[in-house]
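Title: Request for sanity check on RDD family protein prediction

Description:
We are preparing a figure and want to confirm that the structure record we downloaded matches what your pipeline produces today. Could someone re-run it with the sequence below and paste the raw structure tokens into this thread? We only need the token string, no images.
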Amino acid sequence: MHPTVNLTRYQHGGHHTSRIRAAQRGRRLLDGRLSLTTPEGVSLQLTPAGPYLRAIAWLIDVLVWLLFCGLAHLMMPSGKFGGGLFLVILFVSYWGYPIISEVYFNGRTLGKRALGLEVVRSDGLPVGWRESTLRNLLLVADFLPAMYATGLVCMLFDQRFRRLGDIVAGTQVIYVEKPMARPTPPSAEPLPLPFPLSPDQQRTLVDLFEREHRLPLDRMAELGSIAEALTGAQGEESVERMRRYVAGFNK
């Protein structure tokens, strides 16, 4: 019978898995990240965007709209017809620009794209016509009594930094998560495992060496000693053997 290796204990330094999960749930509000599950069962980690960057994104969008209006005015014919047409273009562009951008361009206007922000539904899914139209029409309510005072107060008192339009429409503004570069596997001479490991146990070993650069050497040596039942060694020698095991997983 092969010896039993508690790799879950090894990965977390001896703490029970349930304690780790409880701690992670407790940190969810501290680090500002939201943990959501889609109807398909996919877990999403979202970071709500605060008022400061959202205000800058809004200012960029206003400047873009004013520039467009200036160019449109120069191209308009003179007379009442030109004046009426210009007013129609102002109205359509003011309300249409953010809605079309959010629906067709992944929830991002030019300002949000420049700041790395995105509008999504409260469940993390992309916004549709209904949500985008509702949240943008309610900009009028968020503006009251002046300078978006209502929207700012709502964001300051809401954990997800949602303004009134977001709360009613069921949307929120989040940071666009940049995909993390996949760590390179450990550079070592592959070594066959002394006995088979389950896929979860192998994943635990891979996870360890993907974040090895963030752990101090003495901590790695301590974890190596905990895995003595697998490696038959302690300290740095045990760590090196585990590195060679991981190097051989894809061989």
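Thanks, this matches our download. The beta strands are 34-37, 43-46, 117-121, 171-175.
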